[in-house]
Design brief:
Blueprint (H helix, E strand, L loop, with lengths): L17 H19 L10 E8 L6 E14 L2 E10 L9 E9 L2 E8 L10 H10 L3 H18 L2 H17 L3 H13 L4 H13 L14 H10 L4 H13 L5 H8 L18 H15 L5 H14 L3 H11 L8 H15 L2 H9 L4 H17 L3 H17 L8 H4 L10 H25 L2 H12 L14 H6 L17 H9 L1 H14 L5 H19 L5 H4 L2 H18 L6 H12 L3 H9 L6 H11 L1
Antiparallel strand pairs: 1-2, 2-3, 3-4, 4-5
Length: 625
């Protein structure tokens, strides 16, 4: 089996399931990501971690073990359970809390839970005051008020609740920070203090919406805003909502849209991503005017996102990118993930190499220039100009290592979606530089020798590395961004295939597309030996199978059935032309699994009875039966 590019075990009667093997782990991880995005303390992958919790009681600081466990539960369905085990005994019991979710597509449904945290965490007025005094920044104080304050208000009763509300009242009247005051007023309104709503409205009228940009929760939730909209129509907040509705052409609140459309799923918050969802001619002047007056409104980031998408559709990519960067610093910060993904998408997918070069020459703000600089290097790689790309990556790496370019350059890191420690951007660029230099050497060796074997070596190196053409600004989130429906949503385009620009992008980004072209050239080269032709043809089949197994992306550029037919045709041609090859039985095994035909297995038993594919063929035959 010396001619194989991958070991026979990779086939093992599962050729058509390669996509499943490659994709199942990723989909399970995506389900886990979706759930842990709701409860950020828990590990973002299957496993455990320890943390210490201030209980606000005589128990002091208590250690707890957080566990994340995700398992498949059927076709495209996953069960993710988050468990919290407290390392303390309360009433002769060690408290355990858990939350069980069922994840399907992009929805996570809490189906079962038991929250025993209150047996340990007894947050009261004294505990809140202590933690508040220790909070280092206004953002930390706001987060404490919104998360712990709300929880304590709903849990405490009697004198303890009265004490906490009294402490919050004092804070709302005396704290100098507007974001803290407004967050406290929101909690007081949640606790039943109706006067808090009018005070909040007045505070906003005098001081504007105070927002501490990078906190995970914004104090004004939709219910509070809805009540302001209904009861204070002349307020800044209500006027902003009305202005938003006028430009958008739809109700501000999803619950109102649901009532109008009678769609039980419309209540779920969502953001339209297909170009057909926008009307740039009408929306661009509308959103520009809106943001001039309401840049501090909780709808400002939504408005700026839509404005950026309209710019993008009109080909104004620099305006789109700069607006998206601005969006990251606008309230209420609930679409930061969307914005991070869209910035990366415009650079990596929407823009061409020449457009990126023009963008850099136009001297945009530094972070955009550096992102476009790196992306241009990646696109140069995809254009197979490996030596030139290596030079560009080498310069960028030097700037990253010196600190001239931030290691938090990827938007998913700079926005706080993931921590810098979770994705080693500098390490990724360094590896990509090594890949580029290796491919440059192989390509130059082939150009000098014109030897088909050197041509084959270049193709094989590309085949074996799926990350060569990856843009690391995605920081591991490209497939997840697609999976959530932001790119490959069936509603994204009229044909259900996703945006047109994705087709060209896929052909450039998937390494197997590059290796397939090169293997085909080697096979068709008259100067290639028979042995080399056999290797090249078999490798062409593997490359096409790699494309077929890639996932949703591939089927934006390729017809699924046509691609499957090409894989089958290639392996059939291989068996016909090279029946004595040590890989012939593996090719038949792949054909059997791809087509579901038993006659391919019969040929393995009759023509290659001593081959190592026989046990796998027997297993596949049993499965077929």
């Amino acid at each position: 089996m010396a001619l194989q590019l991958r070991p026979p075990a990779a086939w093992a009667g599962e050729a058509t399931k390669i996509a499943e093997q490659m994709g199942n782990d990723a989909k399970l991880q995506q389900a886990i990501d979706l759930v842990t995005s709701l409860r950020k303390d828990f590990p973002s992958a299957n496993g455990t971690r320890e943390m210490w919790v201030k209980t606000g009681d005589k128990l002091g600081n208590v250690k707890c073990v957080l566990e994340t466990k995700g398992v498949p539960k059927g076709a495209e369905q996953y069960e993710v359970t988050l468990t919290k085990r407290w390392d303390v005994t309360v009433n002769a019991v060690r408290p355990v809390s858990y939350w069980k979710y069922i994840v399907t597509s992009e929805r996570a449904e809490l189906v079962e839970f038991e929250d025993n945290d209150s047996a340990v965490v007894a947050m009261n007025a004294a505990g809140m005051a202590e933690l508040y005094a220790e909070a280092a920044t206004p953002a930390e104080k706001v987060q404490l008020i919104i998360l712990e304050g709300r929880s304590a208000v709903s849990r405490l009763t009697g004198a303890e609740k009265d004490e906490l509300i009294s402490w919050l009242e004092e804070l709302s009247r005396n704290d100098d920070n507007g974001a803290v005051r407004q967050a406290v007023l929101g909690v007081l309104y949640y606790a039943g203090n109706k006067d808090a709503l009018s005070r909040l409205v007045r505070d906003v009228e005098v001081n504007g919406v105070a927002w501490e940009g990078r906190i995970p929760h914004f104090g004004m939730d939709w219910q509070l805003l809805y009540d302001i909209y209904q009861n204070y129509p002349a307020s800044y907040l209500a006027r902003g909502m009305a202005a938003y509705e006028k430009v958008r052409g739809e109700p501000y609140f999803a619950i109102t849209r649901a009532a109008e459309e009678e769609d039980p799923y419309t209540w779920m918050p969502g953001y339209e991503h297909g170009d057909q969802q926008y009307d740039p001619g009408r929306e661009i002047p509308g959103w520009e005017t809106f943001l001039e007056e309401f840049s501090g409104h909780p709808a400002a980031d939504d408005a700026a996102y839509r404005l950026a998408r309209c710019y993008e559709i009109k080909g104004r990519c620099q305006d789109a990118l700069q607006t998206l960067q601005r969006t990251l610093n606008l309230p209420d910060g609930d679409i930061r993930y969307h914005v991070a993904g869209r910035i990366t998408y415009i650079l990596d997918v929407r823009m061409t190499g020449s457009q990126l070069a023009e963008l850099s020459a136009a001297e945009p703000e530094p972070v955009i220039r550096q992102m476009s600089r790196y992306t241009l290097a990646v696109k140069t790689l995809r254009n197979e100009e490996y030596r030139k790309a290596a030079g560009m990556l080498e310069e960028l790496l030097a700037d990253l290592q010196s600190g001239a370019v931030s290691a938090t350059l990827p938007p998913f890191i700079s926005t706080g979606t993931i921590g810098e420690e979770e994705y080693d951007f500098i390490g990724a660029v360094k590896k990509q530089l090594e890949q580029a230099e290796k491919l440059a050497g192989l390509k130059e060796a082939w150009a000098k020798s014109q030897d088909p074997a050197d041509h084959y070596n270049l193709a094989a190196a590309i085949f074996h590395d799926q990350s060569i053409y990856y843009n690391h600004l995605w920081a591991g989130h490209r497939q997840y961004f697609n999976w959530l429906g932001y790119v490959l949503d069936s509603y994204y385009s009229d044909d259900g295939k996703g945006p047109a620009e994705m087709a060209g992008f896929v052909r450039e980004m998937i390494n197997y597309c590059h290796s397939a072209n090169l293997f085909k050239e080697v096979y068709e080269n008259p100067a290639a030996t028979s042995e080399l032709k056999a290797k090249a043809l078999y490798s062409l089949g593997l490359s096409r199978l790699g494309i077929y197994s890639w996932g949703e992306d591939a089927f934006v550029a390729f017809d699924r059935e046509e691609l499957k037919g090409e894989v089958i045709d290639t392996f059939e041609k291989f068996v016909q032309e090279f029946p004595s090859s040590t890989m012939a039985d593996d090719a038949l095994l792949a054909l059997a699994d791809l087509s579901g035909r038993r006659d391919y297995l019969d040929r393995i038993f009759s023509d290659y009875p001593q081959g190592d594919a026989v046990p796998k063929a027997e297993a596949l035959l049993e499965k077929m039966s």
